[in-house]
Amino acid sequence: MSLLFKHLRVHQVFGANTDVGKTILTSALVRASANSGNVYYLKPVSTGPPGTADIEHIQRYAGTHKDRVHTHCLYQYQEPVSPHLAARLAWESKNTVIPTDETVVNSISHHVRQCASRTIIPAHMYVETAGGVHSPTLSGTTQLDAYRPLLLPTVLVGDYKLGGISSSISAYESLLMRGFTVDAILLFRDEYYRNWEYLQPYFADKGIKTFALSAPPALLPDPTENQQSTEAYYQSLVSEEGIAGTMEHLDACHTSRLEDLESMPKRTLDTIWWPFVQHQHFQKESDVKVIDSAYSDFFSILSQPKNSTDSILQPQLDGSASWWTQAFGHAHPAITQAAARASGRYGHVMFPRATHRPALQLAERLVNEGPGKGWASRAFYSDDGSTAMEVALKMALRAYTTRHGLDAIDRKDVGILGLKGSYHGDTIGAMNACEEGVYTCEWHNAKGFWLDSPTVGIKDGKVTITVPRSFGSAAAPKDLQSGDLSWTYNVESRLDSPLATVYRTHVQNTLDKLKRAGTKLGALVLEPLVLGAGGMLFVDPLFQRILIDTVRASQSDAPSNSWSGLPVIFDEVFVGLYRIGMETTTSILGVNPDISVNAKILTGGLVPLAVTLASDAIFQAFWSESKADSLLHGHSYTAHAVGCEVANESLRIIDSLRDSEEWKEAQGRWRYAGEKGRVWSFWDPLFVSTLSGLESVEEAMTLGTVLAVKFKDSNAGYVSQSAETMLSGIEHTQGGQAGFSSAPGGAPFGVHYRTLGNVAYFMTSLNTSSAVLRELEDKIWTTLAPPEVAKD
Amino acid sequence: MSLLFKHLRVHQVFGANTDVGKTILTSALVRASANSGNVYYLKPVSTGPPGTADIEHIQRYAGTHKDRVHTHCLYQYQEPVSPHLAARLAWESKNTVIPTDETVVNSISHHVRQCASRTIIPAHMYVETAGGVHSPTLSGTTQLDAYRPLLLPTVLVGDYKLGGISSSISAYESLLMRGFTVDAILLFRDEYYRNWEYLQPYFADKGIKTFALSAPPALLPDPTENQQSTEAYYQSLVSEEGIAGTMEHLDACHTSRLEDLESMPKRTLDTIWWPFVQHQHFQKESDVKVIDSAYSDFFSILSQPKNSTDSILQPQLDGSASWWTQAFGHAHPAITQAAARASGRYGHVMFPRATHRPALQLAERLVNEGPGKGWASRAFYSDDGSTAMEVALKMALRAYTTRHGLDAIDRKDVGILGLKGSYHGDTIGAMNACEEGVYTCEWHNAKGFWLDSPTVGIKDGKVTITVPRSFGSAAAPKDLQSGDLSWTYNVESRLDSPLATVYRTHVQNTLDKLKRAGTKLGALVLEPLVLGAGGMLFVDPLFQRILIDTVRASQSDAPSNSWSGLPVIFDEVFVGLYRIGMETTTSILGVNPDISVNAKILTGGLVPLAVTLASDAIFQAFWSESKADSLLHGHSYTAHAVGCEVANESLRIIDSLRDSEEWKEAQGRWRYAGEKGRVWSFWDPLFVSTLSGLESVEEAMTLGTVLAVKFKDSNAGYVSQSAETMLSGIEHTQGGQAGFSSAPGGAPFGVHYRTLGNVAYFMTSLNTSSAVLRELEDKIWTTLAPPEVAKD
Question: Is the minimum CB–CB distance between B337 and chain A shorter than 8 Å?
Answer without folding.
Answer: yes
